[in-house]
Amino acid sequence: MSRRRPSRQELNRTHTRTGFIGRHAERQSFYSNLCSEPEDASYLFHVHGVAGVGKSSLIRHWEGTARAAGALTAVVNEDAIGPIEAMESISAQLARQGQALSRFEIAAERYRKQRHEAEASLALPTVDRGDEPASTSSRTAAQIGLGALSLAPVIGPAAAALDVDALARGADRMRAAVSSRLRDHHDAELVLQPLRVLTPAFVQGLAEAAGKHSWVVLFFDTWERTEPLLDAWLRSFVLDDGHGELPVNVIVVVSGQAAPAAREWDAYRDLIVDVRLEVFTEAEARALLTARGVTDEALVTAVLRMSGRLPVLLDTLARARPSSPDAVDDPADTAVQRFLHWVVDPHQRAAILACALPLQLNEDIYRTAAPQEVADQYAWLRGLPFVSGRGGSCRYHEVVRVSILRLQRTGSPLTWSERHNHLADAHARWRAGLEERLAPAERWSDSTWREHRLNETYHLLCADPTLLAPALEEAVEACSEDLPTVRRWADVLTRAGTDADASALTAWGLRLQDATNREPGIMNALTELLTSAPLGETARARAHQLRGRRFFQAAHPEHALAEFTAALVVDPALVTAIADRGTACAWLGRFEEAIADFDRAVDLSPGDAWLITRRGVVQRLAGRYEQAVTSFDRAIDIDPGDAWVLAHRGVAQRLAGRYEQAVTDLDQAIRLNPHYAWAIANRGEVHRLAGRYDDAVTDLDHSIELGPEAWALTFRGEVQQLAGRHFRTVTDPDGSEQLDPDYSWAFANRGVVHRLAGRHEQAVTDLDRAIELNPHYAWAIANRGAAHRLAGRHGPARRDIEQALTIDPGVAEYLLQKAMLVTTVDGIRAATDIWRSIGVRDATDEYGALAVFLAALSVGTPLEANNMFQRFIARDVHCDTLLDALRCLHELRASPGADRSGIDRYRNALTNRLAVMRR
């Protein structure tokens, strides 16, 4: 849209309204920039200078100037504990100006909702090694992913084994569990990588706003506090283009005590307008005093000396209307003392003192802190020159606040403690009110609850710094949340130590701040706590548990198991640690120990449906399908509307051979959540095993359309055991694991259905897609070879089968495919050696039994062949295996020298068996 320059009258009104004095060059520079064409204008400003020099005041003035020029503006300060909170703050401010970032707001609201659901479901980690499939051709990858585990630190000798890449690979397993629980891959991506989803929506909203207004100006104040939290994110959309194009009429202003330090800014220094603020010149200082009515030369001289020409102190003293100068020694403290002396109303003076104690104020906190006589004068307090804020909250300028705190702490230590305890009690009451609706596992995830807990702890520490140990134990729990929360906790310790003049608090706060500012932040923080903090038994057990989760997430299940065991030595009844140890045991294949742990956990928490479901999953992994169904029954009795549990009971029913019950459960799960791609894919698997290939293709089509990532993400936690060897991890050239971008299992399974139905070209198309997504997917490669063979393309068939055997040597299904290919092309005699190598194998599964039977039929005796056939048919053989057996017999019958009458008897028996199964 066309730009609009502010009129002189508008600028005059802005100047008069803010009462801004000085900084003429800085004001003129910013105004001139707004008058430039966007393509020629500067878009990055870095304002920096010491505390009290007037950075925030200049920012407010620049904001007024921008508003007068028709710009949309938003200011982000230290209240934003991370990028999401910063985007939400900006969005809310722009909405109040009539420009809502609608798409971002919808996405952010959905993020909060889905994150809450995910956190509730992931209080315990989940693991799956993959089901023992009934036939190799029907092998599927694991049914749910590895657990979403808190990012906890690792210490001790094994710490060297962990690196950021390992932790990133562990995050894949977190993605798996969240994806299987949230079902929709868009929701999973939103929860697991919110900035990748929310930032583009935010940038798009800024672009839409910029298209309707002359400028959009974003101010980031108190950068010295928010830089560790926001710097990388800010650069990601201001300097880089990974989140969309930022319009040229978007201006970003960063303000802090020092210029941004990240090296990544260096390449853009020529684009940045560096604004360094010094204390006022004497001329500027005198101009401010004159504007405030302070003209007596002796008084002016005294104020200049007392304030050191620091703008915040100058303005504070000038607005107090001093009547006479006095000699002083400490400029800052004396300036504050003088200001308080000139406040005539004793109740207002008491309110100024009391309201300096909170880290920030709103009206509720003001009423709690201030004397009752001025309880309704919150607006008056907000109008003081050293108080600033937005919306309903405000805070003192740090220079003034520090001086007031020092005066109170040294003047009356008893009153100091009483007032802090009074404020701590208030936050404790407000926190307790929230706990009436928040389950214990939900509290740390609730931002309002966290703020009350943080402020309560701050005031308790200020009142009594010897309470450091409980605060450090709470810091352990903060490590179970996220990095911004741990950083806030470190900041609270530092602030309390500084304000209470308690060096032990300050030291611990700085240690945790340093830890969180280095990668991986939470691991470093928990390392400090575990090695040096005076933790009690409960906190130490919890720390061991979090450390175990960190090991587990970094793919060190043995170390994780040791840590979970250590946690239980300290606290044998820690249910979540018991379940975590069960998870680690299951991961290591120690299913009996895993089930024992989950039995114990369920005994301690018999009403926990999610825990009971977890036990059912492990029982299923152990092959105890009936016990698994019983566990799922019990969980469903507690929560009948949980589609996730119904789907898992359906899978257990399938593995127990009860296809109709499996379909019933999966149908119900899908009715509850029509977009549940994983359940739809598993129902397709049941249809395939039951020989209903059209239904199977329909479900697999639907699951692929719904979410190419939603179900495939659940397979990232596999190990090399049975199903695991059929779905290998894709690895980038740099060695880091990557999530398959599409639904490779579903494509492979649909390809197999097409092959079984005789649609060889469609089968090859789907299997091509699966192999493109996962080049090491041996099962898909072997099945593509089978499709080529059945279509008469022997060269491609040979290449595929050899490749599958290279990836997974000795798999009976692949050896059988090779034997059939050689038999088809060169005859049974040429394939004798292959058939004999198959014949000496143990028939460990139904496809192995089929291979041994066909080997005996090809190169053995009729009696041996009949015995092997009886062993094969005695199994609970699936339809797809029977179809493959019939096709193999058909091909063998066409070979020279074949016993056609014997083969026909076997074909008739299998045909009758298949007809019975399809009734």
TrEMBL record:
Task: Extract one GO BP annotation from the record.
Answer: negative regulation of DNA-templated transcription
Query: Which Pfam families does its entry note?
Result: TPR_1, TPR_16, TPR_8
Q: Which InterPro entries does this chain map to?
A: P-loop_NTPase, SRFR1-like, TPR-like_helical_dom_sf, TPR_rpt
Top-level division of the source organism's lineage: Bacteria
- Gene3D superfamilies tied to this protein: Tetratricopeptide repeat domain
Q: What is this protein called?
A: Tetratricopeptide TPR_1 repeat-containing protein
Q: What is the species listed in this Swiss-Prot or TrEMBL entry? A: Streptomyces pristinaespiralis
